[in-house]
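re: ur question from the group chat, yeah i did fold both. here u go
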Amino acid sequence: MDSRSSCVVVTGFGPFRQHLVNSSWEAVKELSKLGLGNDMEVELQTLQLPVDYREVKQRVARIWEALQPQLVVHVGVDPAAKAIFLEQCSKNRGYRDADIRGFRPECGVCLPDGPEVITSEVSMKAVSRRAAVQGVEVAFSRDAGRYVCDYAYYLSLHHGNGCAALIHVPPLSPWLPASLLGKALQVLIQEMLEEIKKARAQNQKLSLCSSSQGESTGGLLL
């Protein structure tokens, strides 16, 4: 975990179906202009992924191998959403909807030997409660939809041992422009990084306590 770089990768998706302009990528482009804030001490990299299962599988693997990021955040669009949803987990099965090339994963499975569910290290409930996002509601979810964005999320959770997130944004509208969504992403990812920092500090503390207790017990046995 500590060997990872300070890099944070945020991806949006390209066009699909009737979504010729994908709000996820428009939001990520706005985030790229804003950055994550001078005090975050992270390198932000943004990438567009195609709505293509096979291409996503290759690109997600390359992201983790080449960049070794501390966090990967995938941003997808939920056409029916009125709020921003933070997805807590991803499922391995049920990918039955075709991508832009008409392809479906064999048997609807992401990784044949993978666990049924992988959960993010980030507490999405905590982030959704703490994040102060203006102009749009933020909620958390445990069903990421079983499409290409969920597929990418599962792969990132697998490669990154839980150090990944998926944010679903609504479509663009006059009252929900890309600039507002970009600012929302900035606030949410800042909170996610703080959440990861707290969780790791707590784990380190528990590990030190456990280690010191073990040494004490060892002394008594001697």
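okk and heres the other one u asked abt
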Amino acid sequence: MATRECPQCGTPIVGRIDKKFCSDQCRFLYNNRQKRESEITIGNVNQALRKNRSILKTLNPIGLTEVRREVMVKMGYNFHFFTHVYRTQKGGVYYFCYEYGYTFVKENDKVKLVTWQDYMPKEVSDVLYQNRFDSPAE
């Protein structure tokens, strides 16, 4: 039979076959480290989303405008982070960071900035929001 080791400190585990840690202290330390790493990841994503929203709000005070993509990049916009996607009936794709969104304009490397409108179906955002939490628990 293989010797089991504590995932926190590496010492051999003695006792019940389903025992995972050598002591309560190692169990607490391990679980707290896991939680802290998870919270750091969540914090980084939330920070990127807040920054993106702030940039979109600054560049689009009236609700509809076009800017060069490079302006957004220079301000620190990260195109990898957005909260949801809206697809138009004509096949256009808008990426939203909360209530502020954008779509890429093909000519001149521009980005069209918009705000969420009442005619956009609420169900789309609800379904996307719900699906984020439908994944199996870790």
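fwiw on the second one: Residues 24-132 form one domain. The helical segments are 24-59, 69-74, 122-132. idk if thats what u expected
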